[in-house]
Amino acid sequence: MARIFQFTGLSGAGKTTLAHALEVALSLEGYRVAVIDGDVYRGKLCKDLGFSREDRIENVRRLGAVAEEMNPYYDVIIISAINPYQESRTLLKNNYDALLVHIDCDITTLRLRDTKGLYQRAFLPDQHEDKIYNLTGVNDNFDEPVSADFRLHTGKTPINLSVWRLRKYMLSAIQKK
Q1: What is the pLDDT of residues 129-155, one digit of tens each?
Q2: CATH 3.40.50.300 describes domain 3-105+142-176
């Protein structure tokens, strides 16, 4: 049975980068690791969903179902998704015993990184044709995780140190299962 980790955080916080770095690091130690990337699945299994609260919760429910199907074949499964609502995080915790890892980053750093151009578009004036009105953490809700099993502040911590800290935590959690 795999240990499932849910990485949650705002767009650009480093969820995918860390998930893939941990996939490599843990694989080198002999673990079978799968990454379920919310962005990738949005374009495949979840392409029929929008960004309403209900659709976002359904998106996470589907990611959990994918993790459940993959469970017998892996030691570690990482679900990497914004997952903005406590309700859907609790669903993953209750249904799949998924540990919550909050990849936390301040909005100033996220605006500087802005690899997808989303923050620039979210801060455009209202009525601008390119404005995004549903960017999580800017003009759409993100419930701050109050009971994360582990929290990383990627705006303040270099990537190599973040990977090291997260690897140490994950190895401990894997061994406790």
Answers
A1: 999 888 888 888 899 998 999 999 999
A2: yes
